[in-house]
Amino acid sequence: MFYGLSNFFKNLLPKRLFYRALLIVAIPAIVIQLIISVVFFDSLWIKTNQGMTRALVNEIAAFIESYKNEKLNKKELENFFSRSLDLNIKLIESENFDDPYNEQKYSPIDRTLRRELKSKFGFSKFWFDTKSYKELIDIRIKHENGYFKFLVPRDRITSSSARIFALWISVPGILIVIISIIFLKNQTRPIINLAKVAERFGKGEKIEKFKPSGALEIRKAGYEFDKMRKRILRHLNQRSEMLSGISHDLRTPLTRMKLKIAFIKDNQLSKKLTEDINEMEKMLNEYLQFTSSSYLEKDEMFNLSELIEEIIEKYDNKNISNSLIPRIYINGRKNLIKRCLNNLIDNAIKYADKIKIELIKKNTNIFVHIDDNGPGIPAEEYENVFKPFYKIDKGRSASKSSVGLGLSIASDIIRSHGGNIKLEKSSMNGLSVKVVFPI
Prior knowledge:
single chain; alpha+beta; Beta-Lactamase; Helix Hairpins; Heat Shock Protein 90; 3 domains; five-stranded mixed sheet; four-stranded antiparallel sheet; 10 helices; 11 strands
């Protein structure tokens, strides 16, 4: 039960730090204001209204008692009370109060007035209406064969200080919230900037200049991130330079071997050696591609549909069907995405004779699906094939030469654009490659 409640309240909380921090500041301020308002309402406003209402009811009772005195002139008595007590008095000859009872059940003014009238005149001897008139209150008291109708100014039973107090207590609360918003915006902006820089770096973008700002702890986190970023870049550059140097150095002996093979008179032996050297050159090209510096390419907006059509045109003699939504634009490094899709389509063509390519746009994502009718790969190998230099021993790689970098390069490019790639069993009984790019 407690776990369920915990999840419920967790889901109610806003996701962003700014709004959470604002709640931490605003909720205590609102609660304190509510407590002060309740204390004021209960101890001051209601008691003040009770005193004013009791005084009015006593004045009405005094008038009725005086009216019973036959020695006094009734007209003069009405005029005196009307002038001195600000009452509009009228005697109506009717056994009933004429209008239906119109009390507001949950109104503190009505509740107080009913209690005072009941204690002074009894349960069924009075009638009042606080709703029908904006500035007046209608009070009726039974008298012999009729009733007195008193029209009383509303401010005789309720204090206007409640409105002033509500304004007085609301303005500071609003000011506190506004100041909190300005302050918290300044405090959360450095965190947002740090998150954006980290996201850009994670996508492989080049960070020209990053200067941490904000509170001491946030600046420290920013400086540590910058140090980590530089260490990662240095490590990647060293790895790329090493692999690139090895690949270039191996080209020279391979070229010499090609020249020597040209002088071999045994054609069958010469052919086999040439095939081996070509395979080695292919591997070296994949190494160089893996260490390419094109990750420094800048982002640009381009038509992904046109790019896929351009790639498919190279395989005009292959059985490739496609379902592409026209004019789907994506922001990214065009040459890298082209290399990625080339690798995936090349991989499918190696092992299948029927390929289907789909381009779909849903909400804020773009989906590229590449399905084939090849032998596929075991489900337990779906994650392993994305590792650099990993090769499986059966299925798709048993009869094809590969250094094991094609899918690794494709995965690296996709993830550097904030996307994702996964493998599934295809509806064509082969392999299905599903790529997701955020728009």
